[in-house]
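User: Teach me something about this protein's shape.
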Amino acid sequence: MTGPRGRPKTGARSAHRVVTEGIGLGILKGEFKSGELLPSPEELALRYKVSRTVQREAFKTLAAKGLVASKTKVGTWVTPPRSWNMFDTELLEWRTRLGMDQEFIASLFEVRRALEPEAAALAAERRTQEQLRELREIARTMSECRDSGRFIELDLAFHVLISDASANPFLQSLGGLIEAALAAAFARSTPLHDPVQLRLSALQHEAICQAIEAGDPEAARQAMIAVIDTGAVNARRSLEAAQAAS
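Assistant: First, the predicted structure itself:
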């Protein structure tokens, strides 16, 4: 079994992963605050039942994500949010797992609007015949899909495929990095309980597909903007409805 982009999944999590995730989530939740030292090795050993070697490896992973920094004879402390690598797939997965507030959703859609339309424009010029065939098939299946979970999977696959079809290594990497966040965003922004809006979403994706097939970069760009803007509106409404109901 594999996760996004072929990453392996295992039933049992390693001690390293347990510590890394536990501290990472603690930082994102504010349990460990910016500028503060993390608990001592003795405290962490009691909390997670792991050795100092495992702790050091976890700190290395967290440092690579920009969440912590260390200095000999000082310790390991939490870095400010501006240092966090928000394009890191695992960090994004942790962040979305904690729930998305209005500010986070808005920021996510701003990034999508800045990058995905250009990926679509490049895909109109560079897509292969095989990629076009796959894109057509996904768009067709979306138009016929009535299962919410499956629709989200197709939606995500559609956008990742366009990222790949851009043939731009930075955009291709970005597609993988933001995959976890997109999955969570689509869960809120896809109008799963409104057949009319669901049909509109499918038609909007079909418009992107047609523009890419026609080799029209500007039409592909504008069609992608329409999809993202519609998604942003639906996500905001969904969050507002959830807040009103709570």
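Now, about its shape. The radius of gyration is 20 Å. The first strand starts at residue 68 and ends at 71. If you'd like, I can walk through any region in more detail.
User: That's plenty for now, thanks!
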